[in-house]
Structure formats: structure tokens, C-alpha cells
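Progress report, Aim 2. The chain analyzed during this reporting quarter is listed below.
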Amino acid sequence: MNATTLPRLAVTAGEPAGVGPELVARLAASDLAADIIAITDRDLLRQAAQACGVTLHIADDDGLGITHRPAGHVRIRHVPLGAPVRFGAPDPANAQHVLHMLGIAADGCLDGTFDAVVTGPVQKASINEAGVPFSGHTEFFAERAGAEVVMMLASPELRVTLATTHLPLSAVPAAITPALLERTLGIVHGALRSRFGIAHPRIAVLGLNPHAGEGGHMGREELDTIIPLLERLRADGMDLIGPLPADTAFVPAMRPRYDVVLAMYHDQALPVLKSEAFDRTVNVTLGLPFIRTSVDHGTALDLAGSGRADPASLFAATRLAIELARPRATV
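Predicted C-alpha cells for the chain:
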């Protein structure tokens, strides 16, 4: 992408039996200033557009940059389905279709064909039922790029990152090690500088225990692990606040003090974010050598094929990808 061409965004439709194809159709029908490259099956996209009542002009992607995209015009990388789609009923026979879409998007970002990838929701169970171990987009892209990554959930009002993601709560304390926290904070700090243009990131770090351990009376993880690590990284120049009690870290008076929150586990922070901005929350993978944003919802199989699925999260993910793809200097 240069100063005159639109950012080239690979947009994967996700699970073909879910709402993803309809969301991509609605995105393509919009006038967002991006060169939207839909990665999906051509006939499926047409079917989804019909379900949504929108008209699309679909052309094959020739790889060339464009300076303007009229609403309803979309280019496509056709990925044939493995089996006919029945909306609301995922078929493991389409697992390779989904994985092929993700591979095209990742490889295209790695070689510069695309400026970013925006992903629709996938049905993990269907892929695993096909005999392919699959834990999610984040892990797929990390392995493809050979990168260590961190999950960020971002809304216009708040950014949250996670030290651990989909672990049982009983497994979290043992996972919170100095090495994990140092790696995670390094990735978050670097991404805020390089992707978000924040020259001196301020990171709020939550404690693991209630009241951040209350001086060891409610657990020693803060005293034994978190505080020593934060002190060492502060000496290296990081601006780290905490460990903070999670029950007060998100109050309005605290938020101007930081640019992002690092939570120790999934449900420590995400309920706050999702209760405030569920339809405006974007999943961002930090640490990849390319930009990846995603909807922060599932495949909504009960709505698939109805044309009623809300595209707000995909629009938010696309807008953030456009913003992050713009060349920027740290401020």
C-alpha cells in the first residue's frame, strides 16, 4: 500500500454454515475505504448476499492496487467448498475449505500481497471433528508465522490483553510465571509502539488474587512473581502500573492513567469490556509480523441464512485494520 492506494484487506468468511459469509457480504456492500478481498467460495458469497438483500459486483482479485472502491464492489480469492452448505449446520467436510482460506490470508500478509487480514468466526468443533487439531485463529496464525503472540480485545474506550487465554481457572496460577509475564509485556509494549503509534506505552497490570493479594493475605503470587518482575521491567524503562486490584482498575478515574490493561486470565477483564461494547469490540493478535483483526463473536448458527446477523463487530474489526495499516510514526 502507498499513499494513494487503498489498504488491501484479506477478509475471510469463516465457517461457511455460519453468519460469516453474510457479514462479509454486508461489508462488501458498504462504502468503507478499503480494497476488500473476500476469501471464500464465490457462489456462497452470492448466496449470502441474496440472503441479506444486497447486490454485489464480484471480480477475481488481480493483485493490483486500487484508489477507490465503489460500494458493493468486491474482489475475491475463490476457495471452493468441500461440500454443499446448509446454513446452521456445519459440515466437517468443509474444514479444509476454512483452513485453506486462513492459509491464503496468512501467506498473503507474509509476502506483502495483503496489508492486513480480517477474520470472520470459525466453528472450531467442526474442524476438530474432521481430524484436524485446531484451537483457534490466534494459534493458527502464530504457527504459520513462527511468532509468539498475545490476544488483545479492543474497543474505542478500552484495550485489554491477556496473560493466559483459554485455561481452566485452576491452571492459571501455575501458568503465571516471570517468563510468561516478561514475554507478554514485551509483545504488548512493542505492538503499542509499532502498531498503535504510542511512543511510551503505559500498561496497567492486574493482580491475580482479590485485592491484588492484599499484601500476601489473599495469595502470594503478587509478592513472589508479579511485583519482582514488574520492578525489573520498570528498571529497563517500561511504564508499568500495578499490580492493580481488578475490581477497581476499570473505574473511570483510573482509565486515563493507562493505554492498555494486562489481565491475568480470560474472565478477569473481558466481562467489563464486553458489557460496555460487545458490538464494537475487536480481537487483535499482537506479535504477528502482520496485522490481524477479527470479530469478537461466534458463528451464530441460529441466525445463519436469515440475513439478520449484526455486522457491527466485523465493521469495527475492518475499521481498526484500516487504521493500523496506515503508515504511522510513534507519538
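The chain has a mean pLDDT of 94. The chain has two domains: 1-147+288-331, 150-284. These observations will guide the mutagenesis work planned for the next reporting period.
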